[in-house]
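Q: Structure for this?
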Amino acid sequence: MTTVAVVGASGYVGGELLRLLFRHPKVRVTAVTSEQSAGKPVQSLFPNLVGPELVCEALDPDRIAARAGTIFLALPHTKSAGPAQRFLKAGRKVIDLSADFRLKNAQAYETWYQTTHPCPDLLPIAVYGLPELHRDAIRSATLVATPGCYPTAAVLSLAPLHQHQLLGDPVIIDAKSGISGAGRTPALSYHFPEANESIQAYKLGDHRHLPEIEQELGVTVTFTPHLVPMTRGILSTAYVRLRQARTTAQLTALYRDFYKNEPFVRVLDPGHSPNPLHTRGANLCEVSAFADPRTGMATLMAALDNLVKGAAGQAIQAFNLMQGWDETLGLQDSGLYP
Amino acid sequence: MTTVAVVGASGYVGGELLRLLFRHPKVRVTAVTSEQSAGKPVQSLFPNLVGPELVCEALDPDRIAARAGTIFLALPHTKSAGPAQRFLKAGRKVIDLSADFRLKNAQAYETWYQTTHPCPDLLPIAVYGLPELHRDAIRSATLVATPGCYPTAAVLSLAPLHQHQLLGDPVIIDAKSGISGAGRTPALSYHFPEANESIQAYKLGDHRHLPEIEQELGVTVTFTPHLVPMTRGILSTAYVRLRQARTTAQLTALYRDFYKNEPFVRVLDPGHSPNPLHTRGANLCEVSAFADPRTGMATLMAALDNLVKGAAGQAIQAFNLMQGWDETLGLQDSGLYP
Amino acid sequence: MTTVAVVGASGYVGGELLRLLFRHPKVRVTAVTSEQSAGKPVQSLFPNLVGPELVCEALDPDRIAARAGTIFLALPHTKSAGPAQRFLKAGRKVIDLSADFRLKNAQAYETWYQTTHPCPDLLPIAVYGLPELHRDAIRSATLVATPGCYPTAAVLSLAPLHQHQLLGDPVIIDAKSGISGAGRTPALSYHFPEANESIQAYKLGDHRHLPEIEQELGVTVTFTPHLVPMTRGILSTAYVRLRQARTTAQLTALYRDFYKNEPFVRVLDPGHSPNPLHTRGANLCEVSAFADPRTGMATLMAALDNLVKGAAGQAIQAFNLMQGWDETLGLQDSGLYP
Amino acid sequence: MTTVAVVGASGYVGGELLRLLFRHPKVRVTAVTSEQSAGKPVQSLFPNLVGPELVCEALDPDRIAARAGTIFLALPHTKSAGPAQRFLKAGRKVIDLSADFRLKNAQAYETWYQTTHPCPDLLPIAVYGLPELHRDAIRSATLVATPGCYPTAAVLSLAPLHQHQLLGDPVIIDAKSGISGAGRTPALSYHFPEANESIQAYKLGDHRHLPEIEQELGVTVTFTPHLVPMTRGILSTAYVRLRQARTTAQLTALYRDFYKNEPFVRVLDPGHSPNPLHTRGANLCEVSAFADPRTGMATLMAALDNLVKGAAGQAIQAFNLMQGWDETLGLQDSGLYP
């Protein structure tokens, strides 16, 4: 069994990592940290967890490194870079689920996160952990930056067009997320009576996932996230002017070809639309393509579970690659429906 | 008291008409029809209704016309035109909430509804019942076609740009609706376990509300509706390339000016986003404008209650105008929050 | 117009008072207080509100008393008694929506609220504001204690049995509430992802609404509240051993007779069950009675909107009585459905 | 690999059986039937399913028996008994998820299901498939009747009291179920806008799960099921007069002892309440006990996922026993949270 630690386990991403790692056939979780819940069993934080009765401890990188070969960091951005550096120096592999190593450009980080990057020297070795685009680099990485939930959906919905140089102008991404995407800290906007029967856009033109999307697609993007009254799930609806005309059938064929060997991307038949309900709990992204002959615009959609393919599942997919294992290990179970 | 009838009262729009008409200070509802519920009291269909204990009857236009001066038709499309004609011949005013008289062009109706228009001769006298655009025509109309719920939101979010000839290409409307917008007839897609924790686009490039939007805005539109797990509410998020550059402040000022005398449109301050939760049960449309300096695109949003400003409330607003009354009569109460 | 003030307007009960008072034909709201939102317009707290643009002020009883004849207190328990005393001394009428004056017994207050009662001398003049049981006393009261939301449902479901001395032992009340009943302050239990797809009992045998129920019914009660994933609404399901056998028909007749003149209680036909969905936004309580011939137990149910008949609406009903007006003034509109 | 068939796979229980069987390490699903979906791949019915691409066929017992050693029947009641008989004659083991073999008494079946039992001769060999009560009988059974979802929760919450002869009178079970418990066939009550923001009791004193509960507990029970706006989950809240006084600590100890070797029952600490949110997707039942010193009544609660421990998971638990395997095979993964 390979040993791993989960650092920052009290949020939803930390809990989802534990759920998935507990059922991974080759993994033993040997340490779990949480500053605010130090001393508490993880089952008291996540009543769903069936598995080893681990107790949260405060983060002491040396003590953690002594017990685990790979470290999953589920810390807030700016808090992740320091521990990552410590773990790497100790010879451990690091899979960071924060935003600290997603942007290749330290200046862009400073612009969007309004703070100097804590460890810019690590940026060159960090690999953006989207296996569908960077599989080989992930295999040999020691530091992987797991993509944000919105970027995973948006980039997977548009990557085939990017590869074929079909992305014209504009590229518009209208994304809808369940409330778990906002984290586990209560606030008025996420208070049940205010989030229920509600749908609202936020951070227009200003969301921190935007530069990630532009980095991966190489184009300027208009990105508008919305919160919808669901617990889990993201639907990304992108509108693109194609550089050359394509029919829905042609686009679908192009997407099918691009994703033909991908275990976790499902390209839907024309006339079908992705729905995060189809992916709950699963490391799966549904994708569809539609070309509107009336308007000349293409509509590209992707749906996924923000906590799985949008976070913890994708991190484990990268981890499997880094270990040289079958990429799907521990990630093949069906989601929950309904 | 002015007498009115509600024809086709068993659906959600019919029920909402009764709720609002029952509290209208100058109206008496004298007849209610429903083929499937003939003989049943309206309170058995809508347990919320407090008011006269009316009993549904089968539709007999002559008998209805004898009792009511204005007829609200809440029938399915293609079923409305015939009765409308009968009521008009009998000298009654008709407010039609179906799609039968929304499109000015009979050929467009045939294309989108895949049937010959039942009464094309009435199209020239029908007025599109959006008071913010057609107030004067509504005042003198005898036949008003109440706009669809999506078009109300989409058109109100873009009308100021249309008036100022700022609508460039593309114009993209990504709309999200609660499930009541799909009507009261059960189907698998609206079955609670399939609609809950779900969000899905439908009828891409093919929704019947699209030609209405294009008719009112005079441009080609990409329109994608989505169903979200709410009971009521629509949020329309439109993305537009402006023909001339504008800042958010300029756009907001332009919207404020356009809607300065409108009792039922609320233009939000920059940085605030419309939310149908703010409008539940009220004849109100929240609107906002945002110009993205990075991309040169504008994002225009509108939120409303699909059954009120998107249907029954708007119909009564038109009715007030047709009667020469204060447009806000019976429509001024606050919505429900939360 | 009669002048009123709403003290403590930033919570859901305060907002609902404003919604209902704004549409009351004989009332003008002249002052609104909120410590945390002093200086803010009420519309910034409650975006649904259509009406006068009032600005919250900090609570200064003398300044408020100078402007309002009746004061609605929507403050937390223990915070209400002091201001109530000040307003009464100034000759104002007080309708308190906190728990401070609901229990007639200061010792019981101390037991259940674990603090000495702030103004025990006022308890003898306070009237429990359930019009269906205490209408005459309310009419002449200067201090009314509006019942809790659970007690309103539970007591209305059982009062006819109490009057007829049919309440045997045990009396069990299993109540289910929407999340707005827990107030507007965010907490993990009310965080959307934790409250959605969830149902849980809380405060078994220990909820502070229990002594109110026992006070009004004169019997010992087992009371278990549950939170369910709805925004508004309470359903109370009571199980009672009757002291004498009765059929469902007999019980229904007895309930019909008891409530025959009540404008806001609707006794359902046998075979129908109350549902808070039927009462949203309305000052209405649905009640039903069922006698199980197999077990000899009776099941008595009540449904209402916790913020209306369970709080703000009931307070206005009492206010109408205190003013000598028609009890239904401003409270007769239909609720929202669906 | 052991071969199994799922007969009647188009409903939620059928889909959940496939989800769980697909991840069972010793099982191969060799046949799937559905009359209405014959010819369709199961993934078209359940878009979550990752696994073999099986195609639904019409039910031909001989063809199915030729391919599968154990048959899971997820058919409507009265439709199950006939095929069960055919499969048993062919020497196959049958796990029936309908109600046809749950009641030991053919007369009771006739009373509650209002039809003559199709195969009363099989009743003596049918075993009620609740492993916590009938483990040994299940091990050697050829025909297992999987309990209903409500009975599983209710019986597990009360079985320790039954064993210790502490169940006095009355025994009241107030149960709350998510909408998936009502099945996959759309109807107005389950239409999203009518089921959302709604809670309602149904079939008072008349629900078909009642005789099962009484059969297993040996006492007369008052049972009231409610539908709440959740997709999955049941919470059962039982109120019992104990035959001898017990404290909460004593009851909890008694429950802990009764369930000490049970892999799928979790007895909560005093002060904690079961919540189906903790069990979503998992074969798990949370149980708690509380004795109210004020009233002398005990409150016993159980929460589970109606489609897993309340149906498909429990069936597989019984199947593992019938095969002589570890009872937890394929059933040990954590549920989904949130």
